[in-house]
Amino acid sequence: MKPKEKALKFPKGFLWGSSTSAYQVEGGIINEWSEWEKKNAGRLAGQAKNYWQPWQIKKFPEILNRENYICGRACDHYNKYKEDFDLLSEFGHNAHRLSLEWSRIEPRPGEFDDKELAHYKEVILDLKKRGIEPFITISHWTNPVWIAAIGGWENKESITYFSGYVKKVAEEYKDLVKFWQPINEPGTYIGLSYIQGSFPPRVKSFWQANKAFKNIMESYRQSYNIIHGIIKEAQVGMSHYAVYNVPYKNKLKNKIILKPIDYIRNWRFLDSIKNHFDFIGIQYYHTDVLNLKFGLGRWGPIETKNPNRIVSDLGWDIFPRGIYYLLKKASKYEKPIYITENGLADRDDKKREWFIKRHLYWVHRAIHEGVDVRGFFYWSLLDNFEWDKGFWPRFGLVAVDYKTLERKIRPSAWKYAEICKKNGVKI
Ligand code: BGC
């Protein structure tokens, strides 16, 4: 006999939505990434054959094409945002997370573009008119070309420039936006750009990583103060990539490394900005089973030995219960938590409904045990440009045909819509 479905109710006023970031969906942006990908797209396409599994190459042959790695017009969300927000209304979302593009707003140092500032105002107003609460990320991994030219985040001057940009947008949107996330996932950015060296500026140096990290964190702290100086009731929070780490085969050596790794990956930098956040934005995707080995690999002497039992199209290990453990741990900061990203690449939409429901089951359990979780944002509203992987990973509730720009709602989007409208999930 099928077990009876259980309806899990979420607290009143819970925020339900989805996330995007400017570069990944808007199209037509010139910044450090667009310049970098022109030089690197050929290399990425060439390396793909050895990098990805045969099943991935078979399923996504575009992985081998240079064009896959050029963002270009992306989903043209810059022009189609109203049409896309119509979907949010249909889905019953009451919140939406998006980012501003620094290179549009400040094309040259200290020069702000009124037209672009007005554009984002219209975007935000369009959400507000629909009763959708905007969550604004001020910088989601992309730097203007002129910031890259002075050495990006490694240069201390980036702090002054970023503060000027933050001040401008906070003043501009002070009457419209309450929730702010100044910088998206600093830890992931540093890991990918300065340690693994797969994102621009493609550096592999702990020394440079540390320099950039310090400047980013200082920028974050200053942003917190600036925004609060301008908007009294603002809620400013970190956007934080959290990974659930597990020791491989429960071996003692792996249990020993687990604690410091978990600290470095998940909690070190939240500790370093303890007095500078009003909420935590947790972004959770997968679990990693860690093994200490001899010799150096991509991440030093530690490798991942993931069981690959249930994986996304990207091969990431799906482990919904991980979100529960992370939420329980994050509750030690005694601040409200929003899950500002959680999602998977699943082109055929075979696992998405299950993925969302299982994660929500564990989120609900954490809430039931007293963790103050106040919102959930699925990543992402649309299929989009997945950075150095390009277009093939399909994270969207809504599929995008990149040739025609046609949007097609995936069935799981309606299932998620039911959850949003009922403020509850049937498990
Ligand atoms: C980033 C997104 C990205 C997603 C999936 C998050 O860490 O904020 O930009 O698309 O992960 O990889």
Structure, described:
There is one protein chain. With 427 residues, the protein is of the alpha/beta class. It has a single domain (7-26, 71-426), classed as Glycosidases (TIM Barrel), CATH 3.20.20. 42% of the residues lie in helices and 19% in strands. It contains 14 helices and 13 strands. It has helices at 22-25, 32-51, 54-59, 77-91, 102-105, 114-129, 145-149, 157-172, 186-195, 206-230, 252-272, 321-330, 352-368, 411-422, and strands spanning 7-9, 15-19, 95-99, 133-139, 179-183, 235-247, 279-297, 300-304, 337-341, 373-379, 398-400, 407-409, 424-426. The protein has an 8-stranded parallel β-barrel, surrounded by 6 helices. It has a two-stranded antiparallel sheet with strand order 1-13. Helix 8 runs parallel beside helix 10 (206-230) and helix 9 packs antiparallel against helix 10. The site of beta-D-glucopyranose (BGC) has 10 residues, from loops. Beta-D-glucopyranose binds at residues 21, 24, 184-185, 188, 241, 283, 341, 379, 386.
